[in-house]
Amino acid sequence: MKKSKGIFQQLVKPWLPNASRDQNEDDLERIAAQEQKLLSFGTLVASTKNFHHSRKLGEGAFGPVFKGKLPDGKVVAVKKLSHSSTQGKEFKTEAKKLARVQHRNVVNLLGYCAHGEENFLVYEYVANESLDKHLFRSDGREAFNWERRLDTITGIAKGLLYLHEKAHIRIIHRDIKAGNILLDDKWVPKIADFGMARLFPDDQTRINTRVAGANGYMSPEYLMHGSLSIKADVFSFGVVVLELISGEKNFPFTRDSDSKNLLEWAFKLFKKQRALEIMDPALASSADPQHIAMCIHMGLLCVQSDPDLRPDMGRVVMILSKKLTALEEPSRPGYPGSRYRRSRTPGASSSGTGYSGPSNSLSFGSTSSSKSATSSSSSEHTSIRSDPHGKRPM
Ligand SMILES: Nc1ncnc2c1ncn2[C@@H]1O[C@H](COP(=O)(O)OP(=O)(O)O)[C@@H](O)[C@H]1O
Ligand SMILES: [Mg+2]
């Protein structure tokens, strides 16, 4: 359609007066730019009132973010990337690929702009703040009830599965955390900041955080050896799940003086069949204890120290949809300072008689063998490790 219009314009061009010929060329350029999602610097300046401080939404490790309005009325978040990102052609190539990554549970990238040394990413605006702001506030957490939290867990799981396995390029997020999950006006969770691992391949900020071990979401193998795979994202997802259920931050953690962090506390209680004690008191009136117990169990599987033992996101989505119910016993969680050891044998499988979680009376039936699921996730991990691009996921 567009192509035939273009051909038509080319044909009539010689007979058009000069002014309208320029106009047509401008139009053609604009259409081409739109298709490539390349936005002009002028458009960004106009849409953010010249990056006015009143438009600033905040500033993260990758640079400041401004609220803006595009000429078509669309409200956007414009992220100005700090200088350590990829430059020039490489930035445009990566940004073009990322703009094709579209999913309901991912903050869609609407466009990008390269202006001199400066690079910008333009995202859809997500209205209802980030997960941490809902979860770690001192009051009003009841509004973020169990149904919403479960929808959030499921949405993040589906978004991550898409990034890992279904998008046209494989994307390891590398920075899954409560602050990078945005909620829209209908409480639909959306994963923000995907693709940074591609745009900041040697990210100094992450390396510093790694040395400090301070963010509480990093898997031990990434923290200690810089080894990045989809299982690092699974680990971070598991931390978010346990934070969503407990309303506690993994780190810093003060709730139990005998535990260094939320993961250790949850694991200890799980071992004593008392896992439900981690539940946020604000969930008391909306809780579905059976489902919460299953989610704690799943969260603990995701944060296991050995990446090979963690489920992949496909399996997590199946567990959440209750299609997979016989869950193996989780082994120790990994956290800074804990010894990262690769187990030779998978965690002891539950007897196959059904889910037996923190409360022994709970049962979710039995439809699948945890052993086969574990081995399939192992081979997935191995294939990613042999990725010739190493830390730069493809
Ligand atoms: N697409 C978006 N829609 C609405 N707000 C956003 C969007 N992207 C980022 N923000 C907000 O901008 C601020 C800075 O974001 P970011 O640079 O990603 O930092 P961080 O993830 O480290 O908090 C955060 O408060 C975040 O909620
Ligand atoms: Mg962010």
Automatic annotation (TrEMBL):
Family matches, as PROSITE patterns: PROTEIN_KINASE_DOM, PROTEIN_KINASE_ST
Organism domain of life: Eukaryota
Coiled coil (UniProt feature): none
Positions with biased composition (Low complexity): 356-381
Subcellular location: Membrane
Gene Ontology annotations for the cellular component aspect, listed alphabetically: membrane
UniProt-recorded Gene Ontology molecular function terms: ATP binding; protein serine/threonine kinase activity
Cited Gene3D superfamilies: Phosphorylase Kinase, domain 1, Transferase(Phosphotransferase) domain 1
Chief location category: membrane
Topology in membrane: Single-pass type I membrane protein
Transmembrane segments: none
Residue ranges, compositional bias (Basic and acidic residues): 382-394
Catalysis performed (reactions): L-seryl-[protein] + ATP = O-phospho-L-seryl-[protein] + ADP + H(+); L-threonyl-[protein] + ATP = O-phospho-L-threonyl-[protein] + ADP + H(+)
Classification via Pfam families: PK_Tyr_Ser-Thr
Protein kinase domain segment(s): 51-324
Protein name: non-specific serine/threonine protein kinase
Protein species of origin: Dorcoceras hygrometricum
Taxonomic lineage from the root: Eukaryota, Viridiplantae, Streptophyta, Embryophyta, Tracheophyta
